[in-house]
Write the structure tokens for this entry.
Amino acid sequence: MRDAHRMKEKFDVSLDNRQIVSLLIAGIVVMGAVFVLGVVVGKKLSGDAQTAAAPDLLSALDANAQVLHEARQEPALTFPDELTRKTSAEPLPPLPAPKPAAKPEP
């Protein structure tokens, strides 16, 4: 254990200009590869057959907007016409008599 101080020596890292330039070029190549992979995945260019046959999305959105607009339209109010309409002279038929409820068996 008398050589313990030698085991704790610091390592000096020294790079010359050639090694620094090589590391920079390798870093640029790696970042470029990551960028290209991101673009390929982002545009789904990995050979997806479903994207090649995609429908016209703008037409589908227009059709959905038209249906939604028609659904939100309020129907015309008919109560003034119904209230002021003249009724026929014949009376309404009488309502049927209600049936008695059956008693459950004990």
Notes: DSSP finds five helices and no strands in the chain. The CA atoms of residues 58 and 67 lie 14 Å apart. The radius of gyration is 42 Å.
